[in-house]
Amino acid sequence: MTLTFAAADAPSLPLYVLEPDAVSSWLEGQSPATRAWVEANGFAGGIGAGLMLPGPDGGPIGALAGYGTAAQRARVRFALCAAMPALAEGTYHIASGLPQQDAATEALGWLLSGYAFGRYKAAPVKAKALIAPEGVDAARLEILATSEALSRDLINTPAADMGPDALEKAVRDVAYRLGGKVTVIKGDALLDQNFPMIHAVGRAAAQEPRLIDLRWGDTGPKLTLVGKGVCFDTGGLNLKPGASMGAMKKDMGGAANTLGLARAIMALGLPVQLRLLIPAVENSVAGNSFRPGDILTSRAGLTVEINNTDAEGRLVLADALTYGAEETPDLMISMATLTGAARVAVGTDLAPFYTDDDALAADLSAQGTTHADPVWRMPFWEPYETMIEPGIADLDNAPSGGFAGSITAALFLRRFAGQTRYAHFDIYAFQPAAAPGRAKGGLWQGPRAILGALPGALGL
User: Fold this and answer.
1) Domain C-terminal end among 104, 136, 168
2) The Cytosol aminopeptidase domain covers which part of the protein (predicted)?
3) Which of 140, 252, 265, 273 lies 20 to 30 Å from 14, alpha-carbon distance?
4) Residue 440 appears among annotated catalytic residues
5) What pLDDT is stored for residue 402 in this prediction?
């Protein structure tokens, strides 16, 4: 879906954004009737408070939105749109009270609040439009919101309608609209062209495994994105319990996030040579499923002992990362819903990432704060390298013991990134419960931070 601001000349109601300390001074300039109305309704400027202001005829002449204190806003992303449920349908413009340094973030939150997934059931219309606040880059925010909406739609779509075929089509659609080129290697051609681990993970599924390769841009530094596209993960022969399998339509969240990020880069016209690699598979159970105890030989030539078929994401990413590194990009970034250990470490609200580049790490963290896309650096902890070395093969895809699972997975991936400057994001890509600007369901985690860091990382 497309998320946009209302036209600047559209009829609109003024929206007064008030912190708790500003309510009294604002009321001093209002009519006795307005003061009485606001006081009677107990509006105090807290986050989530909203109040329509009636005119003499009872119709609305404006609205108030609580903005809370700075300390309260530090705990709530997109604080302004928390007031939206209390506002009537219509179009609004910011009349006063929104700090200029917050305007872009809060306007983006308002746009994202308009997202609804309506493929299978008519979504409720949220006709609460906003005219872009003065001083914000409205076109950029619309690109970001619409790109995230694409990612959310892909994640929210169940695997029956979002298998490798549909994911490939989604990539082709983005490329067609924005001038990219797509090539796909699939089925037994993966073996012929040396992508053995992508083939092994996906060969048991009804839809053929594949490597989707999108390219865009002919000049500038080379940026390669790699997204885990496991369209559904049964766990393979190490079958997941039902409670764990129910959410596995989102196991292609890394692919969805990188495709949305790629769309944003293309739509913004960033001066880069962009490449997006998505190994798209379904980890299914059949007579030809790969097995615990198997030893696979990767594209890089490293052998991998399979100790758990449910640790499949790192296998498909490994071949894709090796392929991406062969062109020595200036920066390579992978995104994947890779480990439950990451959720145990930082919960669902933070996106942990790994990189050896201290300057890049610092900028990603800073940009995540600036753009309401929080990320948290985790360590490539060298002493744990021995945990991914099983003895009878070069690498172990699922070290025993259960400790440091996100770190050992990241260390595994790093083995395939070569000498390329590299960052890996172990994301959740899902909002467990609705929050301001974030409907329950698929979610961006990391793309805005990455976009903010690209100019420094690539010298743009």
Assistant:
1) 136
2) 308-315
3) 140
4) no
5) 82
Residue 387 — pLDDT band, cuts 50, 70, 90?
A: very high
Q: Which of 74, 107, 136 is the last residue of a domain?
A: 136
Please report how many Cα atoms fall inside a 13 Å half-sphere around the Cα of residue 6, on the Cβ side: 19
Question: Tokens in use for 453?
Answer: 């860091």
> pLDDT tens digit string along 106-119?
999 999 999 999 99
| pLDDT above 90: residue 124 | no
pLDDT-based confidence at residue 439 (cuts at 50, 70, 90): very high
- 95 and 152 fall within a common domain: no
Ramachandran class of 194: left when φ > 0, alpha when ψ lies in -120 to 50, beta otherwise = left
Would the pLDDT of 191 be above 70? yes
Question: What distances in angstroms separate CA 287 from CA 124, 307, 386, one per listed residue?
Answer: 44, 18, 33
CB 408 within 8 A of CB 117: no
pTM for this model (two decimals): 0.97
Place of tokens 């002493």: 383
> What is the C-alpha separation between 26 and 274, in angstroms, rounded?
50
What per-residue confidence (pLDDT) applies to 127? Answer: 83
Q: What is the pLDDT of residues 12-23, one digit of tens each?
A: 999 999 999 999
Residues 293 and 205 placed together within one structural domain of the fold? yes
pLDDT surpassing 90 at residue 126: no
- pLDDT score, position 125: 67
- Phi then psi dihedrals of residue 53, to 5 deg: -105, 120
- Does residue 61 sit in the same domain as residue 206? no
Same domain, 24 and 154: no
For tokens 């594209």, the residue is: 299
Task: Give the residue-averaged pLDDT of 233-262.
Answer: 97
Q: Say which of 128, 152, 275, 314 is annotated catalytic.
A: 314
Are 17 and 125 in the same domain?
A: yes
Q: Which of 140, 172, 215, 240 is catalytic?
A: 240
Gap between the Cα atoms of 100 and 137, Å rounded: 12
Range of the domain at 35: 13-136
250 annotated active-site: no
Asked if the structure places residue 443 within a domain, the reply is yes
> Can you give 222-255 as a three-state secondary structure string?
EEEEEECEEEEECCCCCCCCHHHHCCHHHHHHHH
Residue type, 119: R
Sequence-distant (6+) residues with CB within 8 A of 68 are: 19, 20, 45, 46, 47, 76, 79
Return d(Cα 452, Cα 460) in angstroms, integer. Answer: 11
Residues 350 and 404 in one domain: yes
